[in-house]
Write a structure and sequence with these properties.
Elements lengths: L19 E7 L12 E7 L7 E10 L3 H5 L20 E8 L9 E4 L6 E5 L4 E2 L7 H5 L4 H13 L7 E5 L4 H12 L3 E6 L2 H10 L4 E4 L5 H4 L4 E6 L3 H8 L2 E9 L19 H5 L3 E4 L9 H13 L7 E5 L5 H10 L5 E5 L3
Parallel strand pairs: 8-9, 8-11, 9-10, 11-12, 12-13, 14-15
Antiparallel strand pairs: 1-2, 3-4, 3-6, 3-15, 4-5, 5-7
The structure holds NADPH dihydro-nicotinamide-adenine-dinucleotide phosphate (NDP).
């Protein structure tokens, strides 16, 4: 008979030392762009896993624009990160101690570990990744939330059809670059909107988009001459308004994100041109990638297949550093410094 007081799976404590481990906490709610003093570093005792848990050495922290929303004190799809709490973050890592029957020391996994060097979490909350298929940074990007967001946004919300004209904003970014490539794979005409000539050249020359508009030097409403059947909107604000003027009859506007508004200190800019939805019998629909969690395995398998066949290209902007580098790396998203998925790599 099992002793109720003994864990069913004994932790492999060899690598979990009683020495401290570091975490990054939210010290203050930012006003506008987050600054270094909005965060604080702390050293805490390591926590050995209990029954069903694993301890993970965090090797990669995913940097996502949504994190800006998570630190606002307002109702959202997840509770706000509390002041003083460890910053919420998705990441990848290596299991260093396991009390979960299906996970062993050395397994590589992804999960919501937070901005910390080591995390002890419920084993059911992590996903094992195959490093032979792709490196951890790609499992946070094209094969992770990023790729899945592009996939479900296009197919489930955008109702993508062959021959569609698809316009994508933040086109050289993590989600946008995958969305545009998937649309190309489905015989669509794809027009990217991105900041700067380098990004525009990247999406056309390297990813095969049909055209790109540099919103920093061009007026999007004038430069966009095609009618969009699908607009995959990552940015909101003025660019959303400009594209609304160019919808095809029955268009689908996919509200994926609104990064242009995330640091706004005043009311968010709403779409002045929403009346176009009526004129064009179009619809605008928001979504969260989590809405499709039941379909993740199938979607991930398709994305992995396209990646293996060379039909999709994954690009990551890997920042090597420690959790102290999180605040600076996070800002890259809002300055538009990145092409592809931004990942902070703590360990090779
Ligand atoms: P990206 O890799 O696209 O990085 C953000 C990019 O946004 C920057 O590189 C920059 O590109 C652009 N940007 C930043 N500020 C502005 C601005 N003021 N105006 C216009 N563009 C701006 O990030 P992700 O791919 O991770 O995320 C893209 C969007 O998708 C975000 O809005 C995010 O919140 C959303 N998202 C939604 C999910 C969902 O479930 N609905 C899940 C995951 C992401 P540039 O230089 O071209 O301006």
């Amino acid at each position: 008979m099992r002793d109720e007081h003994r864990p069913a799976h004994r932790p492999t404590l060899g690598t979990v030392m009683p020495s401290p481990t570091r975490v990054l906490r939210l010290a203050r709610r930012p006003r506008g762009l987050p600054t270094a003093s909005d965060w604080s570093l702390d050293a805490i005792d390591r926590v050995p896993p209990q029954d069903g848990q694993v301890t993970v050495e965090v090797t990669h922290v995913s940097l996502d624009p949504a994190m800006r929303g998570w630190i606002e004190d307002r109702p959202s799809y997840l509770p706000p990160v509390k002041l003083g709490a460890v910053m919420r973050a998705n990441g990848a890592g290596r299991v260093v101690a396991s009390c979960h029957p299906d996970l062993a020391e050395g397994d590589l996994v992804t999960g919501r570990f937070g901005v910390r060097e080591e995390a002890t979490v419920d084993g059911r909350s992590v996903q094992r990744i195959d490093p032979d298929l792709a490196p951890p940074e790609t499992w946070l990007g094209l094969l992770g939330g990023t790729g899945l967001t592009a996939y479900f946004g296009l197919f489930e919300v955008g109702d993508l059809r062959a021959g569609d004209t698809v316009v994508v904003s933040a086109a050289a970014g993590a989600v946008g670059s995958v969305a545009g490539q998937i649309a190309k794979l489905h015989d669509c005409e794809v027009i990217g909107i991105a900041g700067g000539q380098e990004k525009c050249a990247y999406v056309v020359d390297e990813l095969g988009f049909d055209a790109a508009i540099d919103y920093r030097s061009e007026d999007v409403a004038t430069a966009l001459t095609d009618e969009a059947n699908v607009y995959f909107d990552n940015v909101g604000g003025e660019i959303l308004d400009a594209v609304l003027l160019h919808l095809a009859y029955g268009a689908r506007v996919v509200l994926c994100g609104a990064i242009s508004q995330y640091n706004s200190e005043s009311a968010w800019a709403g779409p002045a041109n929403y009346w176009q939805l009526l004129l064009k019998r179009a619809r605008m629909q928001g979504f969260l990638v989590f809405d499709y969690v039941d379909q993740y395995p199938e979607a991930r398998a398709r994305l992995a297949g396209w990646l293996a066949e060379g039909k999709l290209r994954a690009r990551e902007e890997v920042v090597d550093g420690t959790i102290e580098d999180f605040p600076g790396a996070f800002l890259r998203l809002f300055r538009g410094d990145n092409i592809g998925k931004v990942v902070l790599r703590l360990k090779p």
